[in-house]
Write a structure and sequence with these properties.
heterodimer; A: 234 residues; alpha/beta; Nucleotidyltransferase, domain 5; 2 domains; globular; B: alpha/beta; Rossmann fold; 6 helices; 7 strands; 27% strand
Chain lengths: 234, 162
């Protein structure tokens, strides 16, 4: 089965086609135009270059964050629309898991950190286990200090990856000490690990209908706004 | 906190222009006050002072309007929203992260929790029934971004302080 992967949860826009042979085509651009203008032409291009027609796509994988809402609304809307039109299921995967996946052979704590803007970060910690990675903390949203506190509490050597880790590199390095940073080119989730992880899930039919896909909100999304002021006005 | 008196919508626009004189890209300003208290008038005066030529209208039904001036001005309104997930979808924090932009959020006080520490809050309140155009405006800053600039904010608004 071929899987189309759509990745827009950070500044990088990426899409890929993959299956049991691995990744057949991959597009990544970090400093492009806006997500909406880049994504659809990129999907069209990788399909053409890999000689894949859309009716061969058996599932759509999409990064559901946490990440940029300006980006995710483009990627998730595209995934939902294509899934509905092609009558295929969607495999949602978290951005923090995608960042950890390429580092799964590291024998130390892996901290994935996505920039949440306004001096906050989304983060999760992972540890190597036989056969893959296990998430041991998070996903959480908090200040850089919160992240440093969690790293200090763990008290072990760690490897930080993600655009949030790079943006706040100095603060993290000074606060948490025994920490190293992964390469810059691993700092944004890519559609390559997305289709690879999704393929394993597709074999187990771990998918959902497009209508069920929502971004991963970490700030109490169901909380109602306390509209005391507005009710007075009404 | 600075408390000042505006005599009319035109005066409120002048106050907004004075605030616009001290803003920096990345600033996030919450506009608070009931319907008709002058939030949009403030936004109009603010945008005009930053060189926006397009007419500034209430974004209540379209949620976010973006104008180009000396800085980009994102003008959002959360009045129609019911849940925090909808606020997240507007990506206000990301708009404020734009290096060339400032963000105004009408009714923003109720959703401040997700917007970080550095905020300027402008509250507009009607005064007496006999003076329907008069408003008490309070301006308060939170976070280092505003603490550093507070004397300049006070100087800019001194003309309206009682």
């Amino acid at each position: 089965m071929l899987i189309l992967g759509i990745e827009t949860a950070t500044d990088q826009v990426s899409c890929a086609i993959g299956g049991h042979e691995g990744v057949l085509a991959l597009f990544e651009v970090l400093r492009g135009r806006r997500h909406a203008e880049t994504l659809a032409p990129a999907i069209e291009m990788i399909c053409r270059q890999a000689d894949v027609t859309l009716d061969e796509i058996g599932a759509i994988a999409v990064d559901v964050g946490p990440g940029l809402f300006t980006g995710m609304r483009v990627g998730i809307a595209t995934a939902k629309a294509m899934a509905q039109a092609l009558r295929v299921p969607v495999i949602p995967i978290a951005s923090l898991d995608l960042l950890a996946f390429p580092l799964r052979h590291a024998d130390r704590l892996i901290a994935t950190v996505v920039d949440a803007r306004r001096d906050e970060v989304y983060f999760a910690f992972y540890r190597q286990v036989p056969g893959g990675l296990q998430r041991v903390t998070g996903p959480a949203v908090g200040s850089v200090d919160d992240l440093v506190g969690e790293l200090l509490a763990r008290g072990e050597e760690s490897l930080c990856v993600g655009d949030g880790a790079l943006r706040h590199r100095e603060l993290i390095a000074t606060g948490a000490r025994r920490v190293e940073f992964a390469e810059q080119w691993l700092a944004h989730p890519s559609a390559a690990p997305l289709v690879q992880l999704a393929h394993a899930k597709a074999l187990r039919e771990e998918w959902v209908p497009g209508s069920a896909v929502v971004p991963l909100y970490l700030r109490r999304p169901d909380a109602e706004i306390n509209w005391a002021t507005r009710e007075v006005a009404r | 906190m600075i408390t000042l008196l505006s005599s009319s919508p035109t005066d409120t626009k002048a106050v907004a222009a004075a605030v616009a004189g001290v803003v920096r890209p990345g600033d996030l300003i919450l506009l608070v006050g009931e319907m008709g208290s002058g939030k949009t008038a403030f936004a109009q005066g603010f945008a005009a002072a930053l060189g926006v030529i397009d007419p500034v209208t209430s974004p209540t039904f379209t949620l976010v309007h973006t104008y180009e001036g000396r800085y980009r001005v994102h003008h959002a309104d959360v009045y129609r929203l019911e849940r925090m997930a909808e606020v997240a979808d507007l990506a206000i924090a990301e708009l404020a992260d734009d290096k060339d932009a400032v963000v105004l959020v009408e009714w923003g006080d109720v959703v401040a929790a997700g917007l970080g520490h550095d905020l300027l809050t402008v509250r507009l309140q009607p005064t007496e029934v006999e003076r329907p155009e008069q408003r008490v405006i309070t301006v308060s800053g939170a976070g280092d971004r505003w603490a550093d600039r507070w004397p300049r904010v006070q100087a800019a608004l001194a003309a309206w302080v009682g």
